[in-house]
Amino acid sequence: MEMQAKEETRDIEKLYAETLHKVERGGITKGKIIAVKNDGVVVDVGYKSEGIIPSSEFTGEEFSLLKEGNFLEVYVEKINDRDGIVTLSRDKASKMLAWESMVEAYNNKSNVEGKIVGKTKGGLFVDINGIKAFLPSSQIDIKMVKDADSYIGRIAQMKIVKISPQRGNAGGTNYASGQTIGASIVVSRRAVIEDERNIKKDETIKILKEGALLKGIVKNITDYGVFVDLGGIDGLLHISDISWRRVNHPSEFFSAGDENEFIVLKYDAVTEKVTLGYKQKRSDPWLSVDEKYKQGMMLKGKVMTVTDYGVFVEIEEGLEGLIHVSELDWAPRPKHPSKYVSVGDEIEAVVINVNMNERKLSLSLKQLKSKPWDVVGEAYKVGQTITGRVKTLTDFGAFVRLPEGIDGLVHISDISWIKHIKHPSEVLRKGQKVDAVIISLDPDKERMALGIKQLTPDPWQNEIPAKFKLGEEFKGKALRITDFGIFVEMEGGIDGLVYSSEVDASRDVKEGDEIFVRIIKVNTEERKIGLSMKNVKSNES
Fold first, then answer.
1. Based on the structure, what is the number of domains in the chain?
2. Which residue range(s) make up the domain with 515?
3. Which of 281, 308, 326 is the endpoint of a domain?
4. CA-CA distances (angstroms) from residue 438 to 213, 258, 380, 396, 407?
């Protein structure tokens, strides 16, 4: 190693000796450091006397590394033959050499390295070995740059796209500064990126074919898909090819800068259009749904979407089943699906139908619960008294909701033993708590008949025949006047009918009037009392 170092030193000294007779003003030559002082460096360039380079032309680190015997390339600024004084500049030599290297790089179309140091109108300033160059905004990158300030301070490879005038050309050169008079240098970072991209593109095209698996980097995300850089060439991954599952937006799966593996679905070598797939890396789960899932099977899944008509549950990636709102609860009118489950819930459900061709998987939540009518069939018997609330009123009766969530019907004829009721609302109201007796029960047909009047004994069996006898007279209240007679409420709330033929025409009876009537008919089987206003002694008196 020591011998090799001595040989290198001899070669440098030989080169130095050959330049002694070539010293001329405005030229660059090699000089040997004779002494390193605080205010500068004494350099011998083979002239009558040594030159001095001010220490200000060196950085602190550079100055600390200078040693006697080292060689430097220096610029001969002045020569005074009479006094034998030579003025040298290391800084100007560096700039001239840098200029020469840039001219060479321009001619050879090779890259140069520069530091982006500032911003100007239309672009950025770049420092290349002490020489300032202009980087237009359009040449910063292959894509539009929104924030040029973010590039300041970066060191990057660039190409010189314009250098004018070159050293030695008409227009002259300011050798003292190392920069040509009126010179302009335009560089392009985009050109370097495009060169690298073209190299990658050539490599990618060699392996680009339909069905190929390629790694790529996500460049841009839109509402309809993802643009992927495959290496010099871009491909589009449509939103429909991201996943077998429902995709609301590509950003659910990808972010700019992500690296993933994609499958080539289609490639047009003429237009260089590449269509990519991601979900195709695994088989379509619907193709085997008939084999994996059977009717009656219980399975687990994750709630993905809640709508007005039901709940979508993901059973496996890309395979969703629907729980229709009618399958959420046994109640006749289930609540909104959001009252039962929330997005993200892990739930169990029962398979009720599988249709591979229509890609439908129907699920049920209520099938996991006991059927209310089965519970009612075991818990209740005919003749039993129940308590519930009036749920609905109709012309023919009232539906009463039981605690189990099922409704029993109280027919209008089973509300009262003695009153002639035209509509249930005359005696019942919605939400009212009532007691009733089970008259009939058929869980298979989901029917239950209830009666309110059956809570008390039938007065027509003994009480009414004993109290209301033929020929007896009673005072009553006219309830309702019809074409076929007048309904009258008598003692005890029992209704009777004054037949139209038995109405006293001499009296102008109105609803609510009190009148005296005579019993002319008592039919216990039909539960009817016939009345007459004629020949009533009470009326005569």
1. 6
2. 463-540
3. 281
4. 71, 68, 8, 18, 12
